Amino acid sequence: MRTDSTGVAIQGLLVRHLVLPNDVAGSKGVVEFVAREISPDTYINIMDQYYPSYKARHLPPLDRRLRWSEYERVIEYARTWGLHRGFGDEQAGLWL
Q1: b/e map of 60-79 (b: 16 or more CB within 10 Å)?
Q2: Which of 25, 23, 1 is nearest to 11 (CA)?
Q3: Are 6 and 55 in contact (CB under 8 A)?
Q4: CA-CA distance, 78 to 43, in Å (whole number)?
């Protein structure tokens, strides 16, 4: 990924993935696909911002916020597949 002098991305690929409660989004499959089919060096923004609103509040399993343990599990799984860019301490404040 190429950035300008202020750190803003100007070229490259950034995959954004929103983790949902009860793995509704299929996070493991997403992680495996990115690592295997694209590259373990891909920037991946693993997001934990899900908030149930409007009708989702009445549609289990989307009727609750994401648990921290669910999010951590996806982060650790991504690391086991060699993904390391776009999340964690090495990128704090850049993609989180």
Answers
A1: eebeeebeeebbeebbebbe
A2: 1
A3: no
A4: 11
DSSP string, 35-66: IIII-TTSEEEEE------GGGGGSTTTTSPP
Give pLDDT tens digits along the chain (96 positions).
787 888 777 888 989 999 999 999 999 999 999 999 999 999 999 999 999 999 998 999 999 999 999 999 999 999 999 999 987 654 444 433
User: Alpha carbon 7 to chain centroid distance?
Assistant: 20
Task: In whole angstroms, give the CA distance from residue 14 to residue 69.
Answer: 24
Helix (H, G, I), strand (E, B) or coil at 82: coil
